[in-house]
Amino acid sequence: MANPMVQEILEKQVMTVAKAVEDKIDDEIAALDRLDLDDIEVLRERRLQQMKKMAEKRSRWTALGHGDYSEILSEKDFFSVVKASDRVVCHFYRENWPCKVMDKHLNILAKQHIETRFMKLNAEKSPFLAEKLKIVVLPTLALIKKAKVDDYVVGFDELGGTDEFSTEELEERLGKAQVIFFEGESSLKPLKSVAQTRSVRQSTNPDSSDSD
Questions:
Q1: Which residues, in sequence order, are CB contacts of 93 under 8 Å at separation 6+?
Q2: What is the spatial distance between Cα 28 and Cα 126, in angstroms, rounded to a whole number?
């Protein structure tokens, strides 16, 4: 049988918690009651403006090629893309099975994340870029923000070390790098970049420094 004093303390604690919850609900109801028609109209107008801005963004992104996973055919095109879009995932590939696996996942993510430009570039046909960005292992994803390579996904090592990784695993990795908008818990703690940030702004001198 429980000690009467302990029982009384427990009951008081439960009542205190219940009262706090009840007070919070009462406060929220009171706040809603205080909203008049003008307040509701302001909230409605604010929401409409937010929706309008998002529609304008989506239209601009679509015009820049977002929403599709496409191949760019020259190094010159690469520089044009990274200057036009704030967030770019570029797959440096060659004709092999691992790169085809990466293609499959990126094709899905490109449609899910219209805020980011997804593209691929044949590394063997782009020797200047491959050397400048130190691309050795294929596939390699260059994660580019504001015209600078901020991070890399090299091979499948960070994706379980197998070609059977899921699209969600790749999405989470890109989310951690903040190159896509990702609502998962893991995106709350951005990974420290494993590579030095390298500028990808076009240079007329192939021997120029990689950093600004």
A1: 99, 102, 103, 120, 121, 122, 123, 138, 139
A2: 60
* pLDDT > 90: percent of the chain: 58
- Residues 136-157 as b/e (b if ≥16 CB within 10 A, e otherwise) read eebbbbbbbbebebbbbbbbbe
The answer to whether the beta carbons of residues 93 and 139 sit under 8 Å apart is: yes
Asked if residue 200 lies in contact with residue 119, where contact means CB atoms within 8 angstroms, the answer is no
Helix (H) or strand (E) holding 49: helix 37-63
Q: How does pLDDT run across 159-199, given as a tens digit for each residue? A: 999 999 999 999 999 999 999 998 664 333 444 444 444 55
pLDDT band at residue 20 using 50, 70 and 90 as cut-offs: confident
- Longest Cα–Cα distance in the chain: 86
Core vs surface per residue 44-70: b (16+ CB within 10 A) or e: eeeeeeeeeeeeeeeeebeeebbbebe
- Taking the C-alpha atoms of residue 191 and residue 165, their distance in angstroms, rounded to an integer, is 19
